[in-house]
């Protein structure tokens, strides 16, 4: 636990956005990087809960209090190792995930949650900058293939992109099978 009183004394901060007038001219990051000292202070707000609800909120079971503490202590290499222990692609989830971990954070019961997503993103960005991340192909390939099929949300609302939507009474698994057959995907 970074600072045992930071969750009381330090308010939550989030990354600032670049001005819209600037963003409309490029496809670069919307958010500005958080200053290192601010990030460290934000990480210190984590209470290292005995029952960390953030673990349950995260579908990956990320070891959030562990890497919050490691960031606070400037132990970035261990932080990326802890992050990669449960997450293969924090460079995506640190940006695109809706962060249910933050909604689940115990601190959000009567205050504002830890800025978990921002910390996650900074850990992986820092690791890339330091050259700590490189391809790790498997020593042995099985030869099997996996098909990943996404879908629009909410279920049963006609998808504006991929028509037709789920037919009345159709089970999601049936829909997946129908679409797989239509696109000649093979499940192995
Ligand atoms: S629930 Fe919030 S305060 Fe508790 S360990 Fe997780 S991130 Fe830290």
Can you describe what's shown?
There is one protein chain. With 188 residues, the chain is mainly α. It has two domains: 6-129, Fumarate Reductase Iron-sulfur Protein, Chain B, domain 2, CATH 1.10.1060.10; 139-188, no CATH class. The protein contains ten helices and no strands. The chain has helices at 6-9, 20-23, 36-43, 53-57, 64-72, 76-84, 90-96, 100-104, 116-129, 172-182. Helix 6 (76-84) packs across helix 9. The radius of gyration is 20 Å and the shape is globular. The chain starts with 5 loop residues before the first helix and ends in a 6-residue tail after the last helix. Mean pLDDT is 85; it is low at 154-165. It binds iron/sulfur cluster. Iron/sulfur cluster (SF4) binds next to helix 4 and helix 5. Iron/sulfur cluster (SF4) is lined by residues 46-49, 52-54, 64-65, 68, 105-107, 114, 116.
Give structural attributes.
binds iron/sulfur cluster, 10 helices, single chain, 188 residues, Fumarate Reductase Iron-sulfur Protein, Chain B, domain 2, globular, mainly alpha
Describe this structure in a few short sentences.
The chain has ten helices and no strands. It has 188 residues and is an all-alpha fold. The structure holds iron/sulfur cluster (SF4).
Give helix and strand order, one letter per element, not per position.
HHHHHHHHHH
> What's the CATH class label of the largest domain?
Mainly Alpha
Strand percentage lies at under 5%
Number of discrete helical segments: 10
N- to C-terminal distance: 45 Å
Q: Bound compounds, please?
A: iron/sulfur cluster
Which percent range fits the helix content?
40-55%
Question: What about the largest sheet?
Answer: none
Looking at CATH, which topology of the largest domain would you report? Fumarate Reductase Iron-sulfur Protein, Chain B, domain 2
Low-confidence runs of at least 5 consecutive residues: 154-165
